[in-house]
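Memo subject: From amino acid sequence to discrete backbone structure tokens
Action wanted: Derive the backbone structure tokens from the amino acid sequence.
How to read it: Take the token row as a discrete description of the fold.
Attached in line: The record itself begins immediately under this heading.
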Amino acid sequence: MELGKVSLSYSNNSRFYMGKIIEFFKRLLKRLVEELNESHHGYLNFNFVLKVFDKEDKKKSSTRVKNSEEVEAEEKEFDVQILDFNKHVDDLVKLLEIFPNTVGEALKILMEWLKMSGKELSDESLLSKKSISEIRTGKVKKPRIETLIALCVGMNLPPLVSRRFIETAGIKLNPSDRQQLVYEIILDGCSSLSIYQCNKILRKNGFAPL
């Protein structure tokens, strides 16, 4: 029995000192990386060396067993997210039920739904207030596809609503065309991308910005 206690104590001490040794080498490596970065004046960056340890630390923390309070807290948070999700679905259903068939009326409804002014939409889409007004009033009945995509991005519309809006102008994107495929991908992410990010994506693919 005493031998077992000694063995267990030795094992615990061994892990303790091994942890200390690892921490020492981590600090030493960090200092070495800082000196290497400094000596190369920013032309080379050696921070990637430290990422190996970061990944290991994250892996260890992710394998930690959660206690009952943490599990319960996560469940409650997920329940709140489900309620938000259901509210979002209800809002979309109501919107699509009254969605007009003309692009001008559709733009009016969407701006009212989002409580968005012409100036705000102009700032977010990089379109002029005049262009937005002409579409809303029906003066321009068939806007360019680039204009419609810019409006979708400016309003951060969900993909389903974006496509419905574009269809009111009699336009259906063709994914076999590379440029229109990029537009499709932008629409899928436009609820989280800014107009500047979308334009950067287009430029990187060799296309004109919106």
